[in-house]
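Sequence in, structure out.
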Amino acid sequence: MARPIRKLPLVQQTDYIDTYTPSLLCDIPRKEGREKLSIDSENLPFHGVDIWNAYEISWLDSRGKPVVAVAEIQIPCSSPLIVESKSLKLYLNSYNQTRFNSKQEVLRTLESDLSILVRAPVLVKVRSESQFGHEAAGELPGTCIDNIDIDVDCYEVQPTFLTLDENPVKSAESLYSHLLKSNCPVTNQPDWASVVVQYAGPKIDRAGLLKYIISYRSHSEFHEQCIERMFMDIMAHCKPEHLTVYARYVRRGGIDINPFRSNYEEPMANIRLFRQ
């Protein structure tokens, strides 16, 4: 059974344990957030993945020498549970003074512990400092809509901003914005993100889409729930035939979370943006 929010590590003062302790991991059920959006967890209207990048992972090799790395963790959106972010940080910290014989042993341990926690197969990649150092910041696909000239006075989610263009011809396009901000429902800390909306169907009004994205600014919800809400609202109000919503959140506590939801395409690349 998942813990009540008031008992999650995010709201607790915690000791930092530096030897391997998988019991530090804590889960959060997806079901409650999805029920608010009338999403049937047994028959999801989308597929996708949550891509977590952990930039602060280190362990000791078999001779006691520290190893530093970056871990990419892919959790399928079909999993009934997600990882509470601070618990993941505490869990990764528990590797700091733990000896492993190889990077593969670290990878297998991460995959096993996280798969058990979320009750679904979790894919993990562990990249060394030298491998990660060659990766440059990238860009989201499509057209940025942030320079559209609009007046804004609504900072609570407002789906009615989502309308079709005055000439709603069939269109297939990718639009993105760097102006997404929401708040953590546990700590109320700001969560900053870039988001791409890729669709095929009647042409969506770009100004309305931008105002809708900005309307999340005072909204409190977990990253994954925000993107699923966005997916459901766009489907309901604009009725595209195909839709993808993909957000790249700025890291907090050495971890960034990047939810991808689509009804037609495979997950986009785990491309690091300029704020990540």
